[in-house]
Amino acid sequence: MSQENTMHNKPPYGMIAILFIGAFVAILNETLLNVALPSIMTEFKVDATAVQWLTTGYMLINGILIPASAFFIQRFTNRSLFLTAMTLFTVGTILASISPTFGVLLAARMIQASGSAVMMPLLMNVMLVAFPVEKRGAAMGTFGLVMVVAPALGPTLSGWVVEHYSWRMLFNIVIPIAILSLVIGIFKLKNLTPQRAIKVDIFSLILSSFGFGGLLYGFSKAGSDGWTNPFVYGSIIIGALSVIGLILRQLRMDEPMLEFRIYKYSMFALSSAISIVLAIAMFSGMILLPIYVQTIRGFSPMDAGLLMLPGALVMGLMSPITGRLFDKYGAKTLGIIGLIITIVTTFYFSKLDMEISFTSLMVLFAIRSFGMSMVMMPIMTNGLNQLPQKDYPHGTAMNNTLQQVSGAIGSALLITIMNKHSKAEAEELMQDAMANMDSSAMTSKQGMAEMKTHILNEAMLHGINFSFLVSTFIAILALILAFFIRRVGPDGKIMKKGKSNMSSESVTVSD
């Protein structure tokens, strides 16, 4: 019996649990610091542009290293990769906790990111190798806990900690978990993934860094700095040209750093397209809703985090269930149902007003999260199932990279739409108000200030609603694509229509 069959018969749950914990705390840190940025600005006396680099820099390091993870996973053992990544992450976390200056804190975040970047592709690749196709849905559903719940829990945990303790406590909480995961990994972790003696192509690494790093930076700054900023469009142009150069170079190489030929597999290509479209739409809830709750309705950051907590819990609870449903019914049925729920709830968010209750928002967001939990992981897993095992590292690296880039694009797109329509609405409302206001009100400073605040809130609400409406149509595009999904069988081939609902038990018998 081969090693692969042995792993499939008895997957190494203990080792996967170690990777799971490590990946969870690493991904949690990506959003953990967002609510704490104002406190850090005050302590280190830095402006908003500088402090934003604590999140932008973290994201850029991820964008640069995740594409290279395909090379790392093929070249080094999963044990050595995990221990190296977890050591870097732990050192960065400790350094961040005790950082005496802002420069040290920024460097610590970069060290953290260099460790966390490899964790998600590594965990996903190990799970693909350890589980057969007919049981992979349940396994990847559990993996969805890391991908979805960790980033969603970040703002809630951060809001509670910052409200009661110093921002340094955010790192102090993570340190013991990271150290425990590292120590257990040293004694218990073994190697599962096959290695190949491949050499890194330095020029490919440079192109990847400038390409994905440039795109991430450009789109992440477009929402705040505007599309006419030279650094914004310059970064996007450099990034796009570098990615084109990277693709052309990889297609000419026998041993590419990142294999773009995997897009010849139709279901993987389709899953990537749906994931990109859905990631752009998904960010409408993660970005626009906190703006509405805090800026327009006046709720605290803690309340904004609590608003999203039930949604995160729903996604966490549904991930394993969705995985088992995927094993039985496939990605198409789940994807269509989940996208319909997502579209309907996103449309309802485009009807926000000043009166809707906090509880109603929480329930609506939780239902939206329920719909999205049925889409992302099943569709992604179905696409990865079509790839040969040797291409798993490239598939996982590609998916994680595209999620980062499409998330940045979604953020920039939706914030730009919101700002543009808010500005246009504010000008129109101001003209109407001035035309209808009597002379006594115009001379009152308090009256003018109240009117201006009211107009700005109304205008921003209009912009948020319009952005949610655009997000609804983006999700409809994902739904249209979902109708073309075909189920991939245990042999990596697309199954015939009559066998699309074949259960895992019948697959095992037929094999």
From TrEMBL:
The chain crosses the membrane at residues 12-33, 53-73, 80-98, 110-131, 138-157, 169-189, 201-219, 231-248, 268-292, 304-321, 333-350, 356-380, 466-485. Keywords: Cell membrane, Membrane, Transmembrane, Transmembrane helix, Transport. It comes from the Bacteria. Pfam families: MFS_1. It is found in: Cell membrane. Residues 15-490 form the Major facilitator superfamily (MFS) profile domain. It is a multi-pass membrane protein. CDD domains: MFS_LmrB_MDR_like. InterPro entries: EmrB-like (IPR004638), MFS (IPR011701), MFS_dom (IPR020846), MFS_trans_sf (IPR036259). Its main location: membrane. Belongs to the major facilitator superfamily. EmrB family. This is MFS transporter.
